[in-house]
Amino acid sequence: MAFADHITVAELERDPYPIYARLRREAPVAFVPAVNIWLVTRWNDVELVAKSPDLFTAEVKTSPIERTFGKPTILTTDGPVHRELRAGIDPKYKPKPVAGYIEQLVRPIAEEYLAPLLAKGGGDLMAEYFEPISTLSLAGSFGFHDIDMPTLRRWFYGLAQGAINFENDPERQRIGDAVSAEISGVAERIFERLERQPDDTALSHMLHDGMPAGKTRPRELLLPTVKVTLLGGMQEPGHGAGSVLVGLLQNPDQLVVLRNDLDELLPRAVDEGLRWVAPIGTQTREATRDIELGGATIPAGAAVGALVSSASRDETRFTDPDSYNLHRNEGPHAAFGFGQHFCSGRWFARAQVIVALRVLLEGCAEIVLDPARLPQFHGWEFRAPTALHVSLRA
Ligand code: HEM
């Protein structure tokens, strides 16, 4: 039996990186029965999959996303409809606009959540700091200003239930459908106002940008993409920030160097953390025909996981790829994906994580991992520390 046949979901979730390293060496394109998908592990092959929509389409028939969110979503369509959806979502999240609003948006949220943590001398930075910053920043940028944290958490949970319901579990589907309908109701009301009175929120840009005068994009075209972006965008910057901080706390000498030059080094620290532990593991596609790749033949119709997480640890591009190294200077990582579907929120996410970490580092002279509860990472499709217990001192 081949190595790939023995891989289990539990092993992947505990730590996929040694598995990917062995696959890169022995079987860089391999069908893994436990997850019913072909895993592509080397940088060049991952890039090729994500950049060849004619061979590997984003319209994955087995994806449960469209069942709950409706279709088309930006993530699961190619061609002109995809370009139309990108034309709506991209403008709010390009580097120039992001630079104009990110401090103002993120700093007050970060300061609000840091104050009680400092007062009690520490806590779980994932649940009590990075997650709320990530969620509220995305909601604010979208235009869901009045939705409180418990509601956003419930939305996230419900959307996730629908998105991962590969087994078609009726209870999961019910939860996903109910939240999906609730979000549609709220978004419809906001859209209605924005059609008459545009503003600078992402929802408004989605309606108006690139449209002929007097016309707006149809709401029903936008709603599935609103939901898919909420699901990815609320959680992942928080996950990424947690991983960056673990990398730094596990390498205290690097943290000292970083603290002396935040302006120059914080962006590098963030990119290195996203390379080291990719918050989103795969770009998932479907083979449009039988395709030879990496010594294997992927059959037409098969689901393919192009592992951006594995690409970012490919030893042909990165020396000692498993270590976190702020001083690394070896070119870009793959955490935001390749090709037409590369992350719309990449500049926003990076800038947000930089502000969240800056507020934390400037506000706390001392950040110490709780030795009794050291951080554990979990997941292969989504990966992050499950908790990040620290003591803090101003
Ligand atoms: C560190 C945080 C983040 C990471 C690592 C990340 C990663 C990714 C990756 C790998 C993809 C490609 C998926 C695929 O091709 O199948 C993607 C797509 C996307 N991301 Fe992100 N993302 C992050 C944060 C965000 C945020 C905050 C937003 C909010 C604006 C966002 C919006 C999107 C959208 C709309 C897509 C779909 C693009 C398309 O299909 O054309 N992401 N992201």
List keywords for this structure.
394 residues; alpha+beta; Cytochrome p450; five-stranded mixed beta sheet; 11% strand; globular; binds protoporphyrin IX containing FE
Number of strands: 12
Name the shape in a single word.
globular
Predict the CATH topology. Cytochrome p450
Largest sheet: 5 strands, mixed
Description:
With 394 residues, the chain is of the alpha+beta class. It has a single domain, classed as Cytochrome P450 (Cytochrome p450, Orthogonal Bundle), CATH 1.10.630.10. The protein contains 16 helices and twelve strands. Strands 1-2-8-5-3 form a five-stranded mixed beta sheet. Helix 7 runs antiparallel to helix 8, helix 9 crosses helix 10 and helix 9 packs across helix 12. The longest helix has 31 residues. The mean pLDDT is 96. The protein binds protoporphyrin IX containing FE.
What is this structure's SSE topology?
Layout: H1 3-6, H2 9-14, H3 17-26, E1 29-32, E2 37-40, H4 43-50, E3 56-57, H5 65-69, H6 79-89, H7 95-119, E4 122-124, H8 125-142, H9 149-163, H10 170-196, H11 202-208, H12 219-249, H13 252-259, H14 262-276, E5 282-287, E6 291-293, E7 296-298, E8 303-307, H15 308-311, H16 346-363, E9 366-369, E10 377-378, E11 384-385, E12 389-393
Parallel strand pairs: 2-8
Antiparallel strand pairs: 1-2, 3-5, 4-12, 5-8, 6-7, 9-12, 10-11
Bound molecules: protoporphyrin IX containing FE.
